[in-house]
Amino acid sequence: MTTTRGLEGVVATTSTISSIKDDVLTYRGYSIQDLAERSTFEEVVYLLWNGELPTTEQLCSFKRTLAENARVPDELFTFMKKYPLDYVHPMAVLRSAVSNLGIYDPDAERMDKQSNKDKAVRIQAKIATLVAGFSRIRKGLEPVPPNESLGFAANFLYMLKGCTPTEVAAEMFDKALILHADHELNASTFTARVCVATLSDMYSGITSAIGALKGPLHGGANEQVMHMLEKIGSIEWVDDYILNALENKKKIMGFGHRVYKNGDPRARILKTMAKKISGLQGDGKLYDMSVKIENLIKEKKGLLPNTDFYSATLYHELGIDHDLFTPVFAISRTSGWAAHIMEQYNDNRLIRPRAEYNGARLRKVAPIDQR
Ligand SMILES: CC(=O)SCCNC(=O)CCNC(=O)[C@H](O)C(C)(C)COP(=O)(O)OP(=O)(O)OC[C@H]1O[C@@H](n2cnc3c(N)ncnc32)[C@H](O)[C@@H]1OP(=O)(O)O
Ligand SMILES: O=C([O-])CC(=O)C(=O)O
Prior knowledge:
about 375 residues; mainly alpha; CATH 1.10.230.10; 2 domains; binds oxaloacetate ion; Citrate_synth-like_lrg_a-sub; Citrate_synthase; tricarboxylic acid cycle; acyltransferase; citrate synthase activity
């Protein structure tokens, strides 16, 4: 048997959903740059689930269906109000909330294609409502019901803050959702596929994926980037902090990637967006610090930022609470998880690799008084 630590370089499945080739990321054959410039998140979700971009009519109907499914059962908010709100992490809440959604879906166990597509719509529509609702509940506010007249991105910001976002904010957030929607066989997507390859249901798959995304080596890195920026505090402390961290072999959050060795194309787009929004409404402090960190780490370690690095500045400038950065990532990635889950069901085989055993040799159980 040969083993590969972290399954690096192992090709574990075929997929028609997204591809990373020569450092270019595509969804169903369209580059993410192109999609971010010329489409909306709803169009991208439709593309991921159906293989083609929607026509005007198909998009209208899809947006309507998403909007109609955005409300969540009241019970979920009632549960949230009882959680230990002084310390619980929103990703832990989201992991439980999506699992709970499954309990209230009478079709949760149905496995035909149409039922799975309907469930994907329901989860995608409701996950934004759950994140925004929890954010308000922990501040002692009531959740804001979804506004069916707004697009997905604008509606999330509306439910979060209770007022309609500016056009620029909605557009930036929409692009960020597009950029995070799918990413080949990343850890959370692989988790989802492993889960549903047992023929478990879609709620189980998405719940498992949320658990995997939560970790700081994966989606949880965007929140950690923000903590680092806060700890550094000011541009003149960047050198001290980063050089010290590198000397102590600490990982710098938001840098490095298992697949991209010449840089993450999403990070380049997010950097431009972070610069734009910082110029429009911030003081540019976080952006300037981030650029200095990027240059220093590149010089000292040859490492480049990944998608989580500049998304932190962008989300901060959009007024999103720092511990909601990863739940926001989950809102977007739900589209990719659902696409992969449906692809897995279409041509399923149980995913069950082997482990090379290197533990103790075969031995006898000694009676307890002789151990
Ligand atoms: C959406 C996403 O999931 S994007 C990734 C988000 N995660 C992060 O930003 C966390 C920080 N980054 C990392 O931990 C890693 O780069 C990962 C997990 C993303 C990829 O890891 P791997 O492919 O397993 O690389 P690995 O961790 O083995 O690192 C290889 C070498 O680069 C170094 N390295 C990699 N990333 C970093 C980093 N962010 N800071 C400092 N050193 C790093 C490692 O210390 C290691 O050095 P060594 O060979 O001297 O021991
Ligand atoms: O692909 C990965 O390993 C992590 C990543 O960038 C993502 O999930 O967006």
